[in-house]
Amino acid sequence: MNYTETLAYLEDLGKFGINLGMERMEALLCELGNPEQKVRMIHVTGTNGKGSVTSMIAGILLAGGLRTGKFTSPHLVSYNERIEVDGKEINNEEFALAIKAVKRAAETVVARGVAQPTQFEVLTAAAFLHFALQKLDYAVIEVGLGGLWDSTNVITPVVSVITNVSLDHTDRCGKTVEEIAMQKAGIIKDGVPVVTAAEGEALGPIQAMALFKQAPLYIFGEAFTVQNISDSMDGQLFTLSAGNYHANYEVQLAGTHQAVNAAAAIVAAKIASKQDARITEEALHAGVAATRWPGRLERVARKPDIILDGAHNPAGALVLRKALDKYYAGRKKHFIFGMMGDKAVADVAAILFRDEDMIFTVRADASARAAEPEALAALLGEGAEVRHDLKAAYQEARSLLSEEDVLCVCGSLYLVGEAKKMLLSL
Fold first, then answer.
1. What share of the chain is helix, strand, coil (3-state, %, to 5)?
2. C-alpha to C-alpha distances, 215 to 16, 29, 357, 388, nearest whole angstrom
3. How crowded is residue 220: how many other Cβ atoms within 10 Å of its Cβ?
4. pLDDT in the model for residue 169
5. Which of 30, 60, 305, 412 is the most exposed place for a label (fewest CB within 10 A)?
6. DSSP class per residue in 339-387
7. What percent of the chain is predicted at pLDDT more than 90?
8. Per CATH, is 298-425 categorized as 3.40.50.720?
9. Would you say residue 124 has pLDDT above 60?
């Protein structure tokens, strides 16, 4: 298969949807020679922030001179974004080769009676295979959905991270925070240290699983804390304290929450450093400071400021609104908003919007899951206007902005991806 044929194969696999369980993944990796066992890995889950933490840990390892892979999802513009080595996306030729090898393995296991692997399982296996062939020192792996039954949960990492837990994917992970926390805690392995920023009712299930697995547990607010020094759209400066350790760190990601994410990443890397002296204090600071993570409070233009944010659940919406109110206090806020219809649209909208905001509703993407803009506008009330073309909505909103205003394209990572593609074409 060439690259174009690879993309067509992956899109065709999309019809199998999400099918949680480990049998297909285990069979697929066995057929490939278990590449996931050939690279040291760090595993990251959580409701929000897991992509940022994954990127920060990968950045720290890279700053230490270690050959480092990173697997994240979903992508914004191309599948290649999901698989990185040493900070660079996999190229088209390597991507096609990896997917071709996994496709052959999938055909073999299906012939033996195993169910067809899903798109995400194929991508995950391709990442593991590519990382093994690249002979990496480490790979940092972001969970796709939940934890316990996620296809990435075949690995035994050197450290696990659970960023936080709130309501999302309630159709698959549980109806309560406690049930979702149990799914996230499913990545905890026997004796493997765990770092978490979870709190409240989410913490109990994580503590129980860590105790059952005899896994050392490092809890934000207990084992480590942060004290913010400064906070702006340009980034955060904060003090991390962990026992007798106190150090100032800088992260160039917007949002006060990123100080907590950075602290979790640093503590995880410090745990890994106990087995690897190449993860130095200098690497901790340089790696975090160099991290970029697109699509989350990402400012893509100034005067007026234009922000992309994939806030697709209530917790993410709260973080976004707090940031906008803090960084753009007293300034007019304009939105282009689109979400998937199976998400908590009403809850997100109630948190995100104010009566004085100007809102254009659009489809998040072309999929059947995307909520219709008319339905979104009806939910939002008089302040929302329907637009059927993202580019036209963007250009109209842009024409209404003064230099002091802010435009936020938000509601779904799929919409953020479409916006990125659109901006690249302008």
1. 45, 20, 35
2. 35, 26, 47, 51
3. 21
4. 53
5. 30
6. -BTTS-HHHHHHHH--TT-EEEE--SSSSTTBPPHHHHHHHH-TTEEE-
7. 88
8. no
9. yes
